[in-house]
Amino acid sequence: MTKDALLFDLLAKGCLRQEQLKKSILVSYTREFDSFDAIDIFHIGEKWNREQRLFWSDPDGIERVGLGYVLRLTAAGENRVSSIAEQKKKLFNDAIIEKWDQGLSGGPLLFGGFSFDPDNQKTSLKWHSFGDATFVLPEILLTRTKENKSLLTINCLMTKDKKPYEEYKRLYEQIQHLKRPQRKLASLLEEDEWTSTEEHLDEWMISVKKAIDMIQSGTMQKIVLSRTMRVDRKVPYDIEAILKALVEHQASHYVFAFTMGESTFLGASPERLVKKQGTDIRSMCLAGTTTRGKTEEEDKEKAELLLRDQKNLQEHQWVVNMISQVLSSFCQSLVVPQSPSILKAGQVQHLCTPISGKLKEDKTILELVQALHPTPALGGYPQKEALQWIRELEVSDRGWYGSPVGWMDEHDDGEYIVAIRSCLIKNSTALLFAGCGLVSDSTVTEELKETRAKFKPIFSALGGLYD
Ligand SMILES: C=C(O[C@H]1C=CC=C(C(=O)O)[C@@H]1O)C(=O)O
Ligand SMILES: [Mg+2]
């Protein structure tokens, strides 16, 4: 039997099971594929379904491109995480999943994320297609593994009206299409083509001052406040060109893009929230920032100053305390380094404490995400009060900025990052986000500079200069 004849077989099996159980059946088939260029494949998706495309690459070198969404799981409000978990469970019940090698990382992965705060009333139309929680299952998912193997996953939901042969024919044609990439020359922006505006800057500075005063008075320990920069072009943004720039310049980051309808949320985040593989857990505390030096020597000097800087160490410590406390309740063992190291992230560098652990009992990746979000790297401390202050002090709607975004598999393993260094793009407008952790030694001027530096990596990828 040829590889794709097996696909037909599975679809027929799915159809039969659908008739027997009288419910929609997920059929997922993963096989080896020809080597591919992820950006090229993403580009092919523009022609056939430009409103349903996703891209994901991680620091281990794994790349994934998803084209077309078989289904969308959505949820709103306080119970959004458990609602997604329930919908996911139902979807995988009775599913037919075939992988030629169980050890490889293809398969029916769900990609998506959550808004930062479902209780924030500033629901703007801009984030409409993303909602409080949205997960998608791509129809075609191409994966390049760490070992440089290419995998093709085809997902299909066999509903009552679907005929196996018709589905097979349609999917087969799409696979042929994938083999004929046409590379378009990605063009970055010319300098005179865009205008940028730092939005509500005065209001933001007043809010930062208020938050610092409050922290100094002892009411709060830490609050993270973010702001937006709008960058307008004369012509629509070229998402592939931006991804190409991010992948080239930010290879050590998580580069992601989720297109939901006309809008794309994309970025290159250095921050892992949590990864779960069986009982192994990995997380990361990232907070405390300085800029990069112009020479290697200056860069190192800045890093050394950061490692000794009391304000940044304090800012960092709230995150270490919270993440280690949360994870210790889930884990039988946890490794937390005594002091932070440096993580270089494009035009900035951070204090970073990686954390790893072993789960004591079976948990899903979503349970871990729910317990961790938002850490004091994006919210503050104490968490509940910090969220309340963010609602009151921030003008912009964070939407999915600063939120958990990622993927999960049929075994409830997966990886979520914190969506920072990111922007929301619609046609010729990009909205960039950057925030900063405020503690008692913060000053408005320094935090303004810090957020300006944090805009740079994504701004550069939109066409500004890398410096
Ligand atoms: C909130 C952001 O960064 C967080 C992660 C690393 C360092 C941070 C800081 O030093 O303030 C922030 O906590 C952002 O980039 O928008
Ligand atoms: Mg900071």
From TrEMBL:
Residues annotated as domain Chorismate-utilising enzyme C-terminal: 202-454
Keyword field: Isomerase
Swiss-Prot/TrEMBL catalytic activity: chorismate = isochorismate
EC number(s) recorded for this UniProt protein: 5.4.4.2
Pfam families: Chorismate_bind
InterPro entries: ADC_synthase, Chorismate_C, IsoChor_synthase
SUPFAM superfamilies named in the record: ADC synthase
Broadest EC class assigned to this enzyme: isomerase
Keyword Transcription regulation annotated: no
Family: Belongs to the isochorismate synthase family.
PANTHER family cross-referenced by the UniProt entry: ISOCHORISMATE SYNTHASE ENTC, ISOCHORISMATE SYNTHASE MENF
Protein name (database record): isochorismate synthase
Organism: Terrilactibacillus laevilacticus
